[in-house]
Amino acid sequence: MKKHIPNTITCCNLLCGCVATCFALQAEPRYDLALAFIIIGNVFDFFDGFAARLLRVASPVGKELDSLADVVTSGLAPSAMLFALLRQMPLPFGGLAAEYLPFAAFIITAFSALRLAKFNLDERQTSSFIGLPTPANALFWGALIAANHTWFCQHGWSALLLLAGIALSSWLLVAELPMFALKFKHFRWAGNALRYTFILVSAALLILMGWTGFSAIVLVYVLASIIADLQRK
Known about the structure:
This protein has helices at 5-24, 31-55, 60-88, 95-100, 107-121, 134-154, 158-174, 193-209, 212-232; strands at residues 128-130, 178-180. The chain is mainly alpha-helical. It has a single domain, classed as Four Helix Bundle (Hemerythrin (Met), subunit A), CATH 1.20.120.1760. It has a two-stranded antiparallel sheet. Helix 1 runs antiparallel to helix 2 (31-55), helix 1 (5-24) packs parallel to helix 3 and helix 8 (193-209) packs antiparallel against helix 9 (212-232). The mean pLDDT is 89.
């Protein structure tokens, strides 16, 4: 019985991703609820691996199922939010460009799937990450859109910023860029200074910025990882 617990939790993650996508693609998108289910899904994503290790029932099926769930929750759902936003915006283009431009949002889904496939095969990513993790990318876009969709809709030129963001985040997902993980081998300050500092800064950003704080946290995470990598070199 216990061998089914991690996969059940993973399926809850998958369901959350489906619900988030549905909220994003409604006639009147509910970006707040879409983000909420992305967050809930990522909580399930954390606990499925934790449960598998705790119960000692990790399996190849569970690993593949986890990636499939992540493609939906951390790939498709934020892409759907971005697609819905671009559809609502007064785009600074005309004709076919304006009609088909919103579909560029799903480039993030494709690169998320590629990132997850690479992660499953890359034995270097046991205690850290190479490239931006898909949950972080999903939280960045979900929070940015949920908190600022009204502002984006008031400025058609901001579509160019979104397109640049799509290109940058897609590259970060598959870039050969080492990024630290919040995995503690012990809880002493020595050896964990970066992790503890990041947690404190993240808490402050959430208190000060609300939903947008999640987007700011991801930016801090990327910058801190780049600085840490440069210091190691």
